[in-house]
Write a structure and sequence with these properties.
Blueprint (H helix, E strand, L loop, with lengths): L1 H15 L3 E3 L2 E9 L2 E2 L1 H4 L10 E3 L5 E15 L8 E15 L6 H15 L5 E10 L3 E3 L14 H14 L1
Antiparallel strand pairs: 1-4, 2-3, 2-6, 5-6, 5-7, 5-8
């Protein structure tokens, strides 16, 4: 009987050390075009999808970072001689299960490359001249479920980013 009590205690201790994380989730917290706030265009949800909630593997943390991006967007207007060009500003909060790591220029560049690839899928709208700022990584080990203004509308970009980062870490 004491063995069962000991095993139950071990199970509870193991569960309490588990890290819950929204894996590969990016919340857009700011979205401006030519200085005008358009967060309502991308903020149709107020938190990460439940399908992204994950218990991180043993030894992993929920890495949370904030990313600020500026880029120049050009949209081709059919039948018009002039294209529309705007400055775009976007801030996001991103989380993923991973081994603990420190943000550096190489990893931040991987995020920028991922955003560039994800945004440039429509041949009529191009983004260029990216400037990216990445915050320090918070290696969260408890209460790690992020929330914010809205969920990213191009989650495939972040799968690409996570894959690129995994190669570096």
């Amino acid at each position: 009987m004491k063995l069962y009590g000991f095993l139950a205690l071990l199970a509870l201790v193991g569960v309490s050390n588990a890290v819950e994380c929204y894996n590969d989730c990016a919340l857009i917290t700011k979205f401006k075009m030519d200085g005008t706030d358009y967060i309502k265009l991308v903020a149709n949800e107020t938190k990460c999808a439940e399908s992204t909630k994950k218990t991180c593997a043993t030894g992993e943390v929920c890495a949370i970072m904030e990313i600020e991006i500026e880029a120049k967007m050009t949209q081709v207007v059919p039948g018009q001689e002039n294209n529309i060009t705007m400055d775009v500003e976007m801030d996001s909060k991103y989380s993923m299960c991973t081994e603990s790591f420190t943000m550096n220029d190489t990893i931040c560049q991987e995020f920028e490359d991922g955003y560039s690839t994800g945004f440039n899928v429509d041949p009529n709208i191009t983004y260029k001249d990216f400037k990216t700022e990445c915050s320090k990584v918070e290696s969260c080990t408890e209460d790690c479920l992020i929330s914010g203004a809205g969920r990213n509308v191009i989650p495939a970009t972040f799968v690409l980013i996570a894959a690129l980062i995994a190669r570096l870490v």
